Amino acid sequence: MGECELCGREGKVVPAMIDEVKMFVCLNCVKHGKRLYPVESKPTPQRQEHWSYGNKPAMFVPKKRPKPMFEEDVEDIPDLAEDYHKRISKARMGKGWDPEELAKKLFEKKSVITKIESKHMKPDAQLTRKIEKLLDITLREKPKDEE
Ligand SMILES: [Zn+2]
């Protein structure tokens, strides 16, 4: 309740912008300007994303396919020894493992090991490193009887 700043009438007044001036006017005069709706009078319900800090979307979205650290991770090793298959099978048997056991330790299929040991397949760089580490051998040096 108050006094209209435009017509002076006593009664309910509301804030309004009249000619770019904020005034309290009656409901009859408010049509001459733009009624203001103070934010504090009607608290709007807050949206969930404004207060749910625990549920923030992650800023860092990991890529589905992580980029290999080195190019050779996805390529054949160029200096793979000619007798790599012999070295693997010799080292494997030295450990007393059958191809299946070696395959399990390398998280590979047994067919991969048998193909590699029969020289029907070259291990890629990643697998080569795994084999080298597991069997404590190197597959990259050239045999002594070669140049
Ligand atoms: Zn008025």
Set down the secondary structure blueprint.
Elements (H helix, E strand, L loop, with lengths): L1 E2 L6 E2 L1 E6 L2 E6 L7 E2 L12 H4 L32 H12 L3 H7 L4 H8 L7 H11 L12
Antiparallel strand pairs: 1-2, 3-4, 3-5
The structure holds zinc ion (ZN).
Zinc ion binds next to strand 4.
Description:
- With 147 residues, this protein is of the alpha+beta class.
- Among the domains are: 1-38, no CATH class; 73-135, Orthogonal Bundle (434 Repressor (Amino-terminal Domain)), CATH 1.10.260.
- The chain has five helices and five strands.
- The chain has helices at residues 48-51, 84-95, 99-105, 110-117, 125-135, and strands at 2-3, 10-11, 13-18, 21-26, 34-35.
- Strand 1 and strand 2 (10-11) form a beta hairpin.
- Helix 3 (99-105) packs across helix 4 (110-117).
- It is rod-shaped.
- The relative contact order is 0.11.
- Mean pLDDT is 81; it is low at 48-52.
- The structure holds zinc ion (ZN).
Characteristic key phrases:
147 residues; 434 Repressor (Amino-terminal Domain); three-stranded antiparallel sheet; rod-shaped; binds zinc ion
Which second-level CATH architecture of the domain at 73-135 applies?
Orthogonal Bundle
Order of SSEs, N→C? EEEEEHHHHH
Which strands sit side by side, in order, in the main sheet?
A: 4-3-5
The CATH fourth-level homologous superfamily of the domain at 73-135: lambda repressor-like DNA-binding domains
Q: Total number of helical segments?
A: 5
Q: Bound small molecules, which ones?
A: zinc ion
Name of the CATH class of the domain at 73-135? Mainly Alpha
Radius of gyration: 39 Å
**Content of β-strand:** 5-15%
Helix content estimate: 25-40%
